[in-house]
Amino acid sequence: PPLRPESDRRALIEAVRDGLIEAITSAHAPAPAEDKRRPFAEAAPGAVGLETLLPAALTLHHEEGIDLLDVLRPLTEGPASLLGLEAGRLAPGAPADLVLFDPGAPVIVDADALRSKSKNSPFDGRRLQGRVARTVVAGRTVHAL
Questions:
Q1: What is the pLDDT of residue 35?
Q2: What is the DSSP secondary structure assignment for residue 124, as one 8-state letter?
Q3: What mean pLDDT comes out for the span 69-76?
Q4: Residue 21 belongs to a domain with what CATH number?
Q5: Which segments of the chain does DSSP mark as H helices, in order?
Q6: Which tens digit of pLDDT belongs to each residue from 58-69?
Q7: Is 106 domain-assigned?
Q8: What are phi and psi of 21, to 5 degrees?
């Protein structure tokens, strides 16, 4: 979390490791650059989050050693379960919503290359891992490299 002590950040990591965090989501609240380039107290909140959620979350696996499935569960099954949806899991009769990704593929976040209309990202220039190759919604490919 921003502007919090390191002990808070570590506590959140341990809560994911212990399965206490049921959902990890992106607020994906992009704001135009002109609304962000102001003194901190006047700047609009928010950032691009949708395109960086998976590789950012995978730092819990790559840098903190949390089991891959323990990182993916609160990104997929957890939110769906909290909302009472049949999505978020591979099971007979469940919607064919899938993300095919390479968890080890390097990704250098370039805010200018993001597909979002807004280009502000706290990860701009950061090297992460986890490249999405294909996204399937209801059995139909909606994104492919």
A1: 79
A2: T
A3: 94
A4: 3.20.20.140
A5: 6-17, 33-36, 53-57, 59-62, 68-72, 77-82
A6: 999 999 999 999
A7: yes
A8: -90, 115
- As to burial, measured by CB atoms within 10 angstroms (0-12 exposed, 13-18 middle, 19+ buried), residue 104 is exposed
Domain of 118 in residue numbering reads as: 6-144
The answer to whether residue 57 sits within a structural domain is yes
For the chain, what is the mean pLDDT? 88
Token pair in block for residue 24:
């990890």
Residue 98 DSSP class: E
Tens of pLDDT, residue by residue over 94-122, are 888 889 999 999 999 998 888 887 788 88
Q: Classify 65 as helix, strand or coil.
A: coil
Could you give the number of structural domains in the chain? 1
This prediction has a pTM of 0.83
> Under a CB-based contact definition with an 8 Å cutoff, are residues 80 and 73 in contact?
no
Judge contact between 130 and 103, C-beta under 8 A: yes
